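Final report, Chapter 2: Outcomes

The project's central promise was a pipeline that accepts a single protein chain and returns its three-dimensional structure in a standardized token representation, suitable for archiving and comparison. That pipeline is now operational. To close this chapter, we reproduce one record exactly as it appears in the project archive, with the input sequence first and the structure output second.
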Amino acid sequence: MRRFFTFILFGLLILAFMFKAEAHDEYWKQRTSLFEVLPIGTEDIVFLGNSITDGGEFHELLERPDVKNRGIRSDVIEGVRERLDQVTRWHPSKIFLLIGINDISHGQTVESLSDKYEELVKEIREQSPDTRLYIQSVMPINNSFNRYKALKGRENIIPLLNNELKEIAEKNGAVYINLWPALEDSKGRLKKEFTFDGLHLNGKGYKAWMSIISKYID
């Protein structure tokens, strides 16, 4: 019987290893391979996150050549943790973190997301203690576009998670930035004029986002 359970455990470990090895698509691997060879200066400012960050030309939007983009589409909290050293080993001046919407779409609870997020924040603090860390709220979404089925009915999770992020920031010496005032409509959804699909930002959306961020840059 002991051999049987040992065999089952060994099989599960192999499956877990295989799943982790295949957890990232080619785009994630291409981006991380690029980030591995691109340096970051100690005075640089880094935007770290998923596709919403990935799509931003922040050095142009902010007119700052010292701003670096380290976003990868479809990334999740654990994905950022896996590649965190590519940012923290350079000890940049500031990190603007935006992550969590993809985790919400995967059906995780607020408690689970909060725990993972705080682990990420603590690692940033440990690996680069002098970097100023800015935790951005997960942005509002607009499901009237009917594009992202996995986010249907999960709109209420976002503000609950944001409440947790604010507390995490306070406990870990980070600055919490509420992005909603610049992005939400009267119903608490992402404004239609800021998006083409209800999740990602268009040009006007990025400008609205930067209207909140710009005061933290200088």
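Archive annotation: The longest strand covers residues 45-49.
This record, like all others produced under the grant, will remain available to the consortium after the project formally closes.
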